[in-house]
């Protein structure tokens, strides 16, 4: 697998038989639909692509997630949902005998997953839990964080469902589980283990659950979704409907780079051109081109200004920037503009 962008001469839904789809910022935003998500996923399914929804959100039951997706026009069953709560519970089994006490800080999804794994759920550090399992839930506050800190300070194993610092909502970005975990870490000095993305654990679990010939990971965050794809050896598609932007793609470090870039989930239904190296340092994608000269990114725009032309400019810019950085050259980040912003719809 290449370290740069790849191409696909056929629509992604025809090439890959399984897609691991992130939820917040990809399939929906908070409780609101994302333009193109239902159309893209429904059409991909009709072409034979199977879907598993893989989320770092550990607060909700798979049944609740599937119900919300279905209400938004994306048919889903609970068996097609893989949560960070399930991954955290599996991580507990690698060190902790079943029947042990676990203090759960989080929502119903995490409580259910920990119990299903064979553990006794407690709510107080005075119950002497062997581990603390921490996941996001809107109701988590100081009393729960304090109990977690007391337990971890007394030697309990701290397992976080994920370390996302922010959470996309319909109103903007709110503190995520990583921010809440950070409070416990600051109080105890103990670095937690994490089961969620960017660890590829959930991806591997999903593939093992359903089987696949070729798997595509789809996400909106470079530091979790796409980093997890790179870590697990999966092809990763970045859709520009959530946290990370096209500019973030261009400036991405190697371990967080996407393999493919699309505006939204309708990008599953089209082919993706691969950047080609041209003369004088230019990288070309159809009518768009980019190069790095004297440490600055230069753009060669296509004659038209369609959505695909703008995406091609992003792809060419990524190829040029990554090639320069990987060759040991400097890239001035101030020379990298915000691109494709008009493709991201509220």
TrEMBL record:
Domain of life per record: Bacteria
Gene3D superfamilies: HAD superfamily/HAD-like
GO MF term set: phosphatase activity
Cellular component GO terms held in the UniProt record: cytoplasm
InterPro entries xref list: HAD-like_sf (IPR036412), HAD-SF_hydro_IA (IPR006439), HAD-SF_hydro_IIA (IPR006357), HAD_sf (IPR023214)
SUPFAM superfamilies noted in UniProt: HAD-like
Full protein name: Haloacid dehalogenase
UniProt organism field: Cellulomonas xylanilytica
